């Protein structure tokens, strides 16, 4: 069953934008970056964080589906400079590597 996106989902989708690692570095320095694995829906995760759905967010954290961005991932992003998506759900900035387009 497909459900209609919520108003919050639509709002967050509209606020999601491409961003570079260089632009994200100040947020990393403050410890406010949440990494979202590429197989997760970035907006769904942002919606759960915004709605304070603690059980869902805790389960994703426990499973490693989302995580506070660590030094080794930051170093990897610095060296590779991949295309990233980000959305702000204060105090967090949720970030995800953009999937490569398949031809």
Topology:
Layout: H1 7-15, E1 17-19, H2 21-29, E2 33-36, H3 42-50, H4 54-63, E3 66-68, H5 71-80, E4 84-89, E5 92-97
Parallel strand pairs: 2-5
Antiparallel strand pairs: 1-4, 2-3, 4-5
Helix pairs in contact: 1-3
Description:
With 103 residues, this protein is of the alpha+beta class. It has one domain (18-97). Helices cover 46% and strands 21% of the residues. It contains 5 helices and 5 strands, in the order αβαβααβαββ. The chain has helices spanning 7-15, 21-29, 42-50, 54-63, 71-80; strands spanning 17-19, 33-36, 66-68, 84-89, 92-97. Strands 1-4-5-2-3 form a 5-stranded mixed beta sheet. A hairpin with a 2-residue loop joins β4 (84-89) and β5. The relative contact order is 0.24.
Please mark out the parts with pLDDT under 50 across 5 or more consecutive residues, or reply none.
Answer: none
Radius of gyration: 14 Å
Fraction in helix = 40-55%
Main sheet strand line-up = 1-4-5-2-3
Tell me the overall shape: globular
Number of domains: 1
Task: Give the strand content.
Answer: 15-25%
The number of helical elements comes to: 5
In this structure, how is the largest beta sheet organized?
5 strands, mixed
Structural class: alpha+beta
Total strands: the figure is 5
Our measurement of the CA-to-CA distance between the termini, rounded to an integer number of angstroms, reads 29 Å
Secondary-structure element order, N to C: HEHEHHEHEE
What is the mean predicted local confidence, pLDDT? 93
